[in-house]
Amino acid sequence: MLYAFLKKVTIKAGFATSPNMIMIKGRNFIILKRLLTQFKMKQIFTICLLFLSIMAIAQKKQPPLKWKTLFNGKDLKDWKIKIKDHPLNENFGNTFRVENGVMKVRYDQYDDFKEQYGHVFYKNKFSAYLLVIEYRFVGDQVKGGPGWAFRNSGAMLHCQSPESMFVDQDFPISLEDQLLGGNGKDERPTSNLCTPGTNVFLKGKLFTPHCVNSTSKTYQGDQWVHAEALVLGDSIIKHIVDTDTVMVYEKPQYDGNDKWVKKSGLKGGALIKEGFISLQSESHPCEFRKVELFDLQPYMDNPEKLRSILQTLAVRKK
After folding, report:
1. What CATH number matches the domain at 68-315, 1.20.59.10, 1.10.510.10, 3.40.50.10190, 2.60.120.560?
2. N or C: at which end does the chain have fewer Cβ atoms within 10 angstroms?
3. What share of residues in the chain are helix, strand, coil (percent, to 5)?
4. Taking the CB of residue 11, how many other CB atoms lie within 10 A of it?
5. Chain centroid to CA 175: how far?
6. What distance in Å separates the CA atoms of residue 183 and residue 241, rounded to the nearest whole number?
7. How high does pLDDT run on average in the chain?
8. Quick check: 27 pLDDT over 70?
9. How far is residue 165's CA from residue 161's CA, in Å, rounded to a whole number?
């Protein structure tokens, strides 16, 4: 390596290689006689120091990525709970609980579901980030749960605050990264998009239907699934399953025709650049063993740094 470097330096300086050279074995130091006659030793020493400095910088390990753990595996002290028809932070039926390091959604204290849709919100809001979750579905759906909610949950992005939700409101105004599990017979892709109180641009056009399927495969049984959401403010959002990007949309905005948007006094068509993150209870037991986030907001004003950190995140070991 040192030979190649010195060769390049000498050629740029106007020297060509020739048989007339001296080789010191063991260190691969090659000193051309012509270099010795036309360069002072100080200049050679400076070149070698420069090379060693460059090598040291190149071999220096990148600092570890600074992830923010949203779920600590111990408790829900950093989360707020809102269940339909119940006041803020009333964890009806102990729906959301932590056992054995896992956040569990359970309905063993429900007589009937009665459309009591619930959400557990992380305490802080975010704008640009990479969200990583690992989830699975277990057991049987609770009595009274709708058919479409079989093995159905979601990670709600850019949510309104839990404090701003009405008591009888079923879903927060948000963008849902819909998480589905297989039913053993039909194709049921996961990381789909649903839009309670919102619209997006999909393939360059305003998309107003409530849900659209992703291109993911179906995940059957009780297996753990690794899902991610790349959110860049009010510009682009991507849903990722394992290593595959399965959904891309842009320009998230409020749906002016939605009743909760109207009641909240929000302007239809206004872009949504930030919000809270919540996880759902929709009548089927599920579990979350990882919920973590990489904050991209510090990079948003520097396209080169943003591109670099996104490349690093994309190739990291998952």
Report:
1. 2.60.120.560
2. N
3. 20, 35, 45
4. 11
5. 14
6. 19
7. 87
8. no
9. 7
Residues 294 and 313 sit within 8 Å (Cβ to Cβ): yes
Q: What's the pLDDT at 63? A: 62
The C-alpha atoms of residue 238 and residue 246 are separated, in whole angstroms, by 8
Residue 317: the pLDDT is: 86
The closest alpha carbon to 207, from 170, 158, 248, belongs to 248
DSSP type of residue 74: S
Confidence of residue 64 (pLDDT cuts 50, 70, 90): confident
d(CA 172, CA 198): 10
Alpha carbon distance 207, 212 (integer Å): 9
pLDDT tens track for 162-182: 999 999 999 999 999 999 999
User: How far is it, in rounded angstroms, from Cα 150 to Cα 143?
Assistant: 11
List the chain domain ranges.
Answer: 2-59, 68-315
Confidence of residue 40 (pLDDT cuts 50, 70, 90): low
Q: Fill in the DSSP letter of residue 197.
A: T
